[in-house]
Recover the amino acids of this structure.
């Protein structure tokens, strides 16, 4: 079987994780090239992976022997590279958030469709087995009708380098960077969001920026449920995230810090539990769930190319998570509840 040849563009934190994932699925895919504007770094990484190194992504797009690009650049650079990659006939895996504006996300989706290439958003939370289990339990009716859902995304990586892209106004802040993960997951498990009311502030970061590092967003779902998303990159903690799902017939709690990340109780007819159940699920706390979900995500992307299938996280899914985040920023400006339209 022909191996899918992938070029990783942007070799920072996420690019290196993606490259490591590619190494783990050697039978199906290979790292053909990598690109980063930091010449010294990209040459060093290329020597480790035994692939070609570039500082300009256009040189990758010109190559006929590359099937796909994996865009791990700062948020505001995703759209332009993705559109050009689609025009060059490359399948696209793009890190979250898909883009920083709905117009850019739409351009990416249109371009991928026009040129017949896959566009998948690298939303690794869809590939965390604990999240998939929670979704399955909800779909089986174990919690009945959901009336309240909460999601938290917590890290301790507040920006400290004065020249980081994370303080640029166009990338906004934690509400966008971290919020999209949680908006994706809640939309995936609970359903479409109707309106939001947000607070977001710079409370921890000491750099010269207005970008928020902490946010609280209240949600109303179209199905009538209420919700809340809390994010911060300023905590003294290893990265984790948490879900709380409350339904008329059961409750599910999930936390990536726990060895057994899911616990639930239910009085759903025929499936009643005797107190809390902690089901077996493939998982290990940070960094284990990162490595696991990135590998599964990469394998899924490659399988979609090989089998010509629609990815589990489409450009449209990425755009809708972005739309909720951008509506939350609108609520910050107006001080009002805003409809997600
Ligand atoms: N799914 C996740 O859990 C996860 C985790 C981390 C980052 N991300 C996403 O990945 C993206 C990148 O974040 P990061 O933390 O890896 O950032 P980073 O700063 O660590 O890496 C970005 C890299 O892009 C390079 N770069 C910037 N402009 C370039 C250009 N024009 N051409 C070539 N290279 C260029 C930089 O030199 C840097 O090495 C973001 O969109 C972020 O949201 C996702």
């Amino acid at each position: 079987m022909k191996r899918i040849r992938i070029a990783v563009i942007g070799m920072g934190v996420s690019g290196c994780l993606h490259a490591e994932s590619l190494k783990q699925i050697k039978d199906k895919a290979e790292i053909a090239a990598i690109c980063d504007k930091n010449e010294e770094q990209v040459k060093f990484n290329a020597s480790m992976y035994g692939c070609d190194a570039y500082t300009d992504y256009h040189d990758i797009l010109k190559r006929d022997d590359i099937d796909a690009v994996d865009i791990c650049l700062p948020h505001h650079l995703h759209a332009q590279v993705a559109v050009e990659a689609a025009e060059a006939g490359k399948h696209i895996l793009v890190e979250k958030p898909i883009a920083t504006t709905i117009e850019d996300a739409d351009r990416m989706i249109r371009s991928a469709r026009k040129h017949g290439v896959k566009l998948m958003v690298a939303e690794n939370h869809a590939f965390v087995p604990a999240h998939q289990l929670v979704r399955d339990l909800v779909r089986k009716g174990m919690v009945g009708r959901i009336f309240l859902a909460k999601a938290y995304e917590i890290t301790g990586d507040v920006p400290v380098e004065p020249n980081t892209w994370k303080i640029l106004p166009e990338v906004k802040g934690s509400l966008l960077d971290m919020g999209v993960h949680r908006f994706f997951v809640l939309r995936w498990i609970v359903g479409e969001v109707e309106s939001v009311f947000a607070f977001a502030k710079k409370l921890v970061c000491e750099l010269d920026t207005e970008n928020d590092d902490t946010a609280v967003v209240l949600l109303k779902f179209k199905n009538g449920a209420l919700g809340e998303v809390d994010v911060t990159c300023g905590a003294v903690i290893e990265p984790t995230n948490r879900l709380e799902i409350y339904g008329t017939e059961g409750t599910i709690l999930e936390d990536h810090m726990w060895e057994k990340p899911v616990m639930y109780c239910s009085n759903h007819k025929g499936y009643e539990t005797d107190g809390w159940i902690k089901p077996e699920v493939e998982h290990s706390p940070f960094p284990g769930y990162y490595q696991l979900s990135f590998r599964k995500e990469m394998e899924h992307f490659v399988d979609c190319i090989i089998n010509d299938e629609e990815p589990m996280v489409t450009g449209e899914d990425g755009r809708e998570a972005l739309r909720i985040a951008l509506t939350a920023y609108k609520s910050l400006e107006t001080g009002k509840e805003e409809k997600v339209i």
User: Anything to note?
Assistant: The chain has ten helices and 14 strands. The pocket of nicotinamide-adenine-dinucleotide is lined by residues 10-15, 35-38, 57, 72-75, 77, 95-96, 122, 124, 177 (CB under 6 Å). The two ends are 44 Å apart (CA to CA).
